[in-house]
Amino acid sequence: MAILEEPIKEVRTLKNYIDGEWIESKTGVVWDIVNPATMKVISRVPISGAEEVDEAVKAAKSAFPEWRRTPAVDRARYLYRLKALLEDHFEEAARIGVMEHGKTIDEQRGEIRRGIENVEVACGIPSLMMGYNLEDIARGIDECVLHQPLGVFACIAPFNFPFMVPLWFLPYAIATGNTFIVKPSPEVPLSQTQLFEIIDEVGIPPGVVNMVHGGREAGSALLTHPDIKGISFVGSTRVGRDVIYKIGTAHGKRVQAQCSAKNYLLIMPDCNIDRTARALMTSVYGNTGQRCLSGSNVVIIGEDEAFYDRFMKTVISYAKRINVGYGLDERVQMGPVRSPDKKQRIIGHIESGLEEGAKLTLDGRKPKILGDYPETCFLGPTILEDVANDMKIAQEEIFGPVMNVMRAKNLDDAITMVHDNPYGNSGSIFTSNGASARKFQYEIQVGNVGINIGIVAPMAFFPFSGMKDSFFGDRHGQGGGHGFEGAIGFYTESKVVISRWW
Amino acid sequence: MDTAAAAVSFHGRLQERAAKFYEELARRYEEGRETFLAFAKEHRNQQRDVQRVYYNIITDAMEACFAFEGMNENDYRINTELTEDISYADVLKMAIDIEDKTYNFCVDGAKRSRGLLHDVPDALEIVAKRTTRRKQTLQSLLEKTKS
Prior knowledge:
Chain A is of the alpha/beta class.
């Protein structure tokens, strides 16, 4: 089986995109971007400083007055063109993502699709952004609500979905008349660079969208800049809660911080075993476990040992069959993790589980790799049984292909286990019983609830939810709820007008 | 076939080879030229349609990985090599075999992936139906060569 053609042919140093121009960073600091499957350098990213962030903010601030006056229908037309060009570049974008991140080609195509869907939803902005009114709130007096943009917004993006996550925010921000700055993760800057090349082709006016590559300094500059009205962040709770939310709100900004997760998958004895086991593969091992919606703690409910054995036998059989390798090889079902340090961190979690008494049923630390690739970033599917809810591996986010198998006497106990964890991003139940499903949906304190769904990824026209230590802010990313529960609400201010004419 | 990507890629190659085969037939045989060109176009459209559907829905990638498990490319390989001295009747038999293999791939693929990616099996079933129509046309052309 041939490897799909790699779209990145030469190593180049990336540039920032500010005020409609590609600009070299002035800092002179560059990091190598390494393909985690081949370990070859594929690009170099500049680590920009506060000065470059300030230039981007100035450009965005200066573009705002004209952009907000651009009729919503005209702003939407830019997005329609963006959508068309993204479709034209779909396959190239997918393969770039595989090269820089390590996903499989199927997974990366999925990421591209989910990103484009947000552009599609934002195309509906003339309807989504409408206000409302009531005549004669008192005799001869009318009242209405207008939704208006605020100014410059920014996004600090994570490494795990380099193409999609900025598109949870950017299309809605500019559709509503704001201007925008993206700071991609310096680990995976190529997807956003390609996106901005396409944006450049769309012809969106200079300054409306800007991109600054960088690390902590650039992030910090965005967070504290007085001319930025709001920040969207996706990353760890440690950074999201203690840095982004705390400092951002202290600087008067709107903040939405989607953070870490520890997602529980509750398995009822009446579930469809085969379908559930497959869904678990997607949930735990998809994207090599590097997503905030990944299932991590599988809780098998009840004391039926025969069911437990039958279920685990099916799960182990599927997990063992997963082909690990380079994502551009179409036989591959699971790629590498993003970097060697992430692999070591995951191995550390597995070893901590073993020290605390978990049983290693499937060991992914030395995986069989399809093809001749260095094992530097590769891990195989791992299963740990006899995991207790108070173990470190059950409480902390692993962000790797590790399944913790736990037991609970009944559904109530299992829900308590979920609630004993500080995170509340996502959780699923697998059952054929409607009453169990409803109880779970009703009681569970997580933002994204799945019923017989492994990865509870809300579509672009619903908000991407999250609770407890998994989300900080008031408004979630993506569309949804007539727009105002999600991105449209985040990017607009509601202005009330009461009028009387003599 | 271990992944949806592999299955859709194989389907694309199958359709492309079939399209080229029919284009060659159209070049060689005046009789049935229009039919062969129409068939070539249909095969290309089918390649496009299945790929488009897959691109539109591929999000649960790992579940999709197991969707086509057990299918082997060797079971659906088609022969499109035309020798110089091949008879028109034998060419039509080759074409029928191509349609049979395409049909088998689509029906098997649809059956296996039904529970996971609804739109892909639907698209494959549409292709299978068209394949049946083409096969009927080819069989009637073959009958004519006997009379």
